[in-house]
Write a structure and sequence with these properties.
Number of helices: 8
Number of strands: 11
Distance between the termini: 17 Å
Strand content: 25-35%
Mean pLDDT: 89
Largest sheet: 4 strands, antiparallel
Structural class: alpha+beta
Helix content: 25-40%
Length: 222
């Protein structure tokens, strides 16, 4: 199996980041609105963030993203047949760095470097596959669905190889309730059960700590 390409190193070596606006950010900061995709794409080089979509005039959790993610690729390759009315934004969950990369220069680079392009599309596909999986598994026990969703969070934040205990900062129960369309009361009961099994721990500063080996043992997507 081919090793994943380090997207940051690839873009940096090509000189794309030198001419891009660098955006250092703290935790809990809105670092992207969809307006950016007119002329630039956003490259998240460090940090973990959440993507929210605006529905019924309220921002709703959609998914997590992390380092080596480019936001807005879907605006580059689809025919502009229908107006895209969906609003979404990215909010940081910890400190990190992003870059506003000129769209046309990035596209020229990706056309000339198909391996990088393929990995970015694969990462985007994985996010959409997880969203589909969460809808398809509605009949599975809620505890199993939550365990699998937590495993998705680990994969989406690229933490699989980062140790025994992994963290999701600024964790909120809405990450689960919105993704799985279930009540917070049931979620709280199951999270308490997972804490008793020493699979997770939620700290006082809203940090979800996951014991990865235990979680992996019970997940169906590991």
């Amino acid at each position: 199996m081919n090793q994943p390409i380090n997207i940051y190193s690839a873009l940096n070596e090509a000189g794309l980041l030198w001419q891009s606006k660098k955006i250092p950010f703290d935790d809990n900061i809105i670092i992207m609105d969809d307006y950016i995709f007119r002329d630039h794409l956003l490259f998240l080089s460090q940090g973990i963030a959440k993507i929210e979509i605006k529905r019924n005039q309220a921002w709703e959790f959609e998914t997590l993203v992390a380092n080596d993610t480019i936001l807005g690729l879907e605006h580059c390759f689809l025919p502009n047949i229908y107006a895209d009315k969906m609003e979404y934004r990215m909010t940081s969950l910890n400190e990190g760095i992003a870059f506003e990369v000129p769209k046309q220069q990035l596209l020229s680079y990706l056309y000339a470097h198909p391996l990088v392009f393929h990995q970015l599309i694969e990462d985007l596909t994985i996010r959409y596959k997880f969203l589909t999986f969460n809808q398809q598994e509605k009949k599975a026990p809620l505890k199993q669905r939550i365990i699998d969703l937590l495993m998705e969070f680990i994969i989406l934040t690229h933490q699989e190889d980062q140790g025994e205990y992994l963290k999701i900062p600024f964790f909120k129960e809405e990450f689960i309730s919105t993704s799985l369309k279930c009540s917070t009361q049931h979620i709280q009961h199951i999270l308490s059960s997972l804490a008793e099994q020493q699979i997770i721990c939620i700290t006082e500063n809203q940090e979800l700590v996951i014991h990865y080996p235990h979680l992996k043992k019970f997940s169906t997507i590991a």
